[in-house]
Amino acid sequence: MQIRWHGHSCFEFTDSVTVVTDPHDGKSLGISPPSASADVVLISHDHFDHNSFKTIRGSHKVVFAYVGEFDFNGFKFLGLETDHDDVGGAKRGKNVMYTMVLDDISICHCGDLGNMPGDDVIERIAGIDILMVPVGGVYTMDIPNLIRFIERVGPRVIVPMHYRVGGLSIPINAVDPFLRSFDLDAEHVGNEIDLSADELPNETTIWVFSR
Questions:
Q1: Vertex 188: Cα angle to 184 and 189 (nearest 5)
Q2: Which CATH number do you get for residue 55?
Q3: Which residues, other chains included, contact 198 with Cβ-Cβ below 8 Å and sequence gap of 6+?
Q4: Which among 101, 18, 8 has a CA at the least distance from the CA of 57?
Q5: Cα angle value 10/36/206 (rounded, 5°)
Q6: Cα separation of 182 and 98, whole Å?
């Protein structure tokens, strides 16, 4: 499987099917737009920096904040409802985390997770291989709660996303405060990575993507 980062919370996963998560249009954020074609586009919530499915090429299936199980060409997906804030969604609405399994690797993309999910949700993602989490704060979980969430999930790989990069117009924090707060070394993997299940680390590792 190949994983490629298109900035912000937009990732492209390619196995025998290509999945893109939370696409943005680039110009609204001050960064480059994603250049990708997909079979499936997963959108965690209806905010402009996560819902630009028209930016993605191909006659893709768009899954818009869907809660529950669904499949595409034999691949299984699960949408789990969470909150975009710490008051039950009253400020920013709901958020859907998506899980999927590609090339025998389990992935959870957290979207704009704003509060600790309930025990039932955490049980569904406990022990996930790759956990993609928003670390820039302001509109998402603060770092102390985010670290508690990650520790409860116990992933093999943590992938930070939704943080400030050069040119970004949204006032969120850079990735460094998160990295300094977590007692793990971070591995900088570049823009994309190719991996198989047997190449996943045995101990929890942070992978930082770049564009």
A1: 125
A2: 3.60.15.10
A3: none
A4: 18
A5: 35
A6: 24
Dist CA 46 CA 19 (whole Å): 18
Q: How far is CA 139 from the centre of its chain?
A: 15
Structure tokens at 25: 């249009």
Residue 211 confidence (pLDDT) above 90: no
List pLDDT tens digits, range 81-93.
999 999 999 999 9
Note the pTM of the prediction, 2 decimals: 0.97
Domain that holds residue 201: 2-209
The pLDDT tens digits for 94-131 are 999 999 999 999 999 999 999 999 999 999 999 999 99
pLDDT tens figures, 47-78: 999 999 999 999 999 999 999 999 999 999 99
Q: Which residues contact 109 (CB under 8 A, 6 or more apart)?
A: 9, 11, 21, 22, 42, 44, 97, 98, 99, 132
Closest CA to 101 of 192, 13, 9: 13
Q: Is 39 left (phi over 0), alpha (psi -120 to 50) or beta?
A: alpha
